[in-house]
Amino acid sequence: MKYYTMFCAFLFITALFVSASFVSNDNERGTHDINTQVKKDVLKVLDQYMNAFNSKDAKAWQLTYHFPHYRLASGKMSVLESATLDSTVFIRLEKSGWHHSKWDHRNIVQASADKVHVDTRFSRYRADGSLIGVYESLYIVTKENGKWGVKFRSSYAE
Known about the structure:
This protein is an alpha+beta fold. The protein has helices at 2-23, 36-54, 58-62, 88-95, and strands spanning 65-73, 76-80, 100-111, 115-125, 131-144, 147-155. It has four helices and six strands. The chain has a six-stranded mixed sheet with strand order 2-1-6-5-4-3. It is globular, with a radius of gyration of 16 Å.
């Protein structure tokens, strides 16, 4: 219930910012224009995220996150309170035939100096290169204590 309440609050606050952007010229809250260094840093952490994922390196993968980390997928919100990622996610995916994933696109839709919303699409592949599936997602990447990391993922992947 606590996480449901937090998620509802997140949606409400997001709706307020979106509606405020339509009635205000204040670009400090987020913009389609992004500082070149911020864009470079965000894309770098997403590259590190995917590389660690494909290497099945849980330790390197968790270094690309900020905790608590939130994921909304298959109609369920999950919260990782701390750096507790392990190899079970890779084992589950491998059982489905997964070998690797790749970004199809990463479009920054809103940005500030310390938070970026990234519209993403990624594909999952088998070892022979055949496609398993294509998944749309929204990644929220934040800068905390001087470090960029993935804070929230909303995905249509299972």
